[in-house]
User: What shape does this take?
Amino acid sequence: MRTYTYTRIFFCTILLCVLQACSSLLGLPSSPEKSILGENTVYTTELKNLPLPHEKIVIGVYKFRDQTGQYKPSENGNNWSTAVPQGTTTILIKALEDSKWFIPIERENIANLLNERQIIRSTRQEYLKDADKNSQSLPPLLYAGILLEGGVISYDSNIMTGGLGARYFGIGASTQYRQDRITIYLRAVSTLNGEILKTVYTSKTILSTSINGSFFRYIDTERLLETEVGLTQNEPVQLAVTEAIEKAVKSLIVEGIRDKIWGKSVENPANYQAVIDEYDREQKENIGRVIGNKFPGDYRQKFAVFGNVEAQKVKDDYVNPKMNIGGKLGFKYFLNPNFNLEFNSNFFTLENENIIKRNFFVPEINIEYLLFPKYKFSPYLYGGAGALYSGIKPRYKGQFGGGFEYMLAKDIGLRASSQYDVGFKDNWEGLVNGKRKDQALRFALGLNFYIGNK
Assistant: This one.
């Protein structure tokens, strides 16, 4: 008994050592870390590398707040923590400093600044009565020619979620993801007349991912082995807000140069032409973009002709059905962007090894539904009816299937699909036996060629 106990202790010790090693291998934290400098985003470097102005601009920021009122999503009860960091004014001021285009002045806590200056004056008047009055006066405060206003105006949770997983014989793995999104508006206001000189708008997604794996197996009738591993990673909201604000500051600077609102700060516009051209290209690319970083367009036209190569296997009343290769040619007419009417003819081989082999010519008609007609990648579903001809009385059937299409070029789509055929009668091979109708399963790979105009 004691030996069995020692064996279990030894086994548990070895298992813990293995788990610790795996933890280090996966990069999981296993000890406290010292404080570090804050991370930079991709736009921090871009801001610092902008061409310098001829003269810096004095700029004031009174408040740049979270205007969403959004609380952190919670699965268990209420969560009164805000989803967006409340120090966005400080993040904006840091971005203005990094750009080297502006001289930010203190306006968020102007009351504290004025109060401190008053204390300085009172102290000097009290203790430096005999000193020169000019030495007691404080220099005037800087005033801003431009104010920055705006804020975080939107926090959208779960704009995209999904996952993938599989489990077989006690071994399983899965992955899940979720995307949130924040939106920033930033505007420059002239203090001379209150005119809004420029407004820019940026957004940033926040990604959360989770990967899990498990193993569950009975070693024998009384022993069970179960292991699990998992890793979850959440993109920090603060970094996402910082990146969106830095992008907004860069956009404000470049659009200000292009639209000539910075005055004497831009002495020679030719020095900034490369930055302006790059920004214009980005704006053109952004015209057709929608949420999810997708670019809808008229990839598919009014008509299409297609050809498929198919692998076919029958399920009939004989044993040992055999897989065969066939083909399909057809024509599609789009009733609207989502629905099209399809006519096709295909070559189908029914074969049971060493029993029967018969070739069929099969015309079909289908109604097809395309899920995302405006995107390059789209799943689709279809269904219809057809007939099998082979020099004998026609056999009739119904079919349904689905697959996906990816647009390789403007008018060429690559398609992969599977189709299930069901006979109306149990007579494809000439034998009626049992209650189940003759059936067939097909897998296809082909090309769609789109013609005509929308």
Remarks:
- The chain is about 20% helix and 45% strand.
- Helices lie at 2-25, 42-48, 88-99, 110-127, 133-136, 237-258, 273-286.
